[in-house]
Design brief:
Elements lengths: L5 E7 L4 H10 L3 E3 L2 E8 L2 E8 L4 E6 L15 E4 L1 E2 L2 E2 L1 E2 L1 H9 L20 E4 L8 E9 L2 E8 L2 E8 L3 E3 L1
Antiparallel strand pairs: 1-5, 1-6, 1-9, 2-5, 3-4, 7-8, 10-11, 10-14, 11-12, 12-13
Length: about 170
């Protein structure tokens, strides 16, 4: 990237990140759409699919002096260029470089893996409406939530909570 180009953030229409990136590239802009491997459960099967790390957002490199940056606003798939007032809000190169440095060989950002719990392990809820309740770890709901079984009125009730809201006992 040349010295005069800077990174900016584009907000896209829902599920149109790839379409917006393709149209911006056709206009001569460099784009970066960070993606990760998301676990998807469908029709009793679990598979990994590419998903945007920041749904509805992507990065675009623009040289404000030489490129027609206002055309970004009317690009297919683009909702708006994130701005402070009328001027687009730049993002430091370190943000994009930091994301790119965490990519694997397939170009997917590697997310931090949280502490893994064993099925049946005792779990304590740290905050929220179930604070101080004890339960048993049942499984992982998605990359940020876990399912636990809590004892309520003599029966086990399945509750899905944020991973950060629970800890092993």
């Amino acid at each position: 990237m040349t010295v005069s180009r800077r990174w900016y953030v584009v907000q896209t229409h829902p599920h149109a990140e790839a379409k917006a990136a393709a149209h911006l590239v056709r206009q001569g802009f460099e784009t970066y759409l960070p993606r990760y491997r998301k676990r998807r459960r469908h029709a009793r099967q679990v598979d990994l699919v590419a998903a945007p790390l920041f749904p509805r957002y992507l990065f675009v490199a623009v040289d404000m002096a030489t490129q027609r940056w206002r055309s970004i606003q009317s690009t297919f798939g683009v909702a708006r260029l994130v701005a402070n007032g009328d001027a687009p809000a730049p993002v430091t190169d370190q943000v994009v470089d930091g994301l790119r440095s965490r990519e694997d060989e397939g170009g997917f950002v590697k997310l931090e893996t949280r502490v893994q719990f064993a099925p049946g392990q005792k779990i304590q809820v740290l905050n929220g409406v179930f604070e101080t309740c004890l339960g048993l770890f049942e499984g992982i709901a998605d990359h940020e939530r876990v399912a636990i079984l809590l004892n309520f009125l003599g029966r086990k009730v399945r509750v899905v909570l944020e991973t950060a809201a629970v800890a092993a006992v």
